Amino acid sequence: MFDYSSSQPGHFYAVGVGPGSKDLLTLRAVRLIESADVIIAPRSRRADESLAMRAIQDHIRGQEVIDHVYAMERDEAKTLSTWMRMADLVVERCSAGRSVVQITLGDPLIYSTSCYLLGLLKERMDDSHVHVVPGISAFQAASCLFAEALTIQEDRVLLMPATDLAHVERALGECETLILYKAGRQIDALADLLDRKGLLQRACLACYAEQEGREFITRDLRSGGAGTHGYMATVIVHIGRRRWNNGD
Fold this sequence. Notes:
Blueprint: E1 12-16, H1 27-35, E2 38-44, H2 51-56, E3 64-70, H3 76-95, E4 100-104, H4 113-122, E5 130-133, H5 138-146, E6 157-161, H6 165-171, E7 177-181, H7 187-196, E8 203-207, E9 216-218, E10 233-238
Parallel strand pairs: 1-4, 1-5, 2-3, 2-4, 6-7
Antiparallel strand pairs: 7-10, 8-9, 8-10
């Protein structure tokens, strides 16, 4: 097992910092962040600050902090170009013997900025020098706010974006719990769909879960409307339970 007691020279770490609350950082994340030479803090061009950076602010000890501003565009070529430049920077710092931590909200492997960077670094660095540190994801934080189980026994859980309602409608018949990310702009249409399916009362909404001053939760998807809940809106639909028997 690799030693994660401190960040190592020439190594890269994609570190999940959880949903945004400072006390939901893992101990491993804190150790690596505090001992790193370089911290990369991704930030959307639309945002005034990095939410991930806000979560770790108490653990900055003079590390080089790189504010990585990226555009949230549905353009694969532009997105790849942006992350290729960041990969160049990581390789340069690691080749010079520095330890690099990229922080990201939630978990690095679930709809995360780290996903882009990890793929590029795997092509250019030794696998043993590229690490991922898990974090509490938005859907975990959201479900805890409602204190309702996501899955029991043989239940199926499906996680997907809410951006394509046709896909969402099909997914409702393929699982017992449906988790939808990026639901903010689709709330009205999503509420209509769930109402038609008789599932509106089985849905709940969490926006900016565990982010101080921004958190909003409700069991009424029609409270507010499209565009009022922001990008970080998670909808959880408890469709039902899958029957199971001993020996099946």
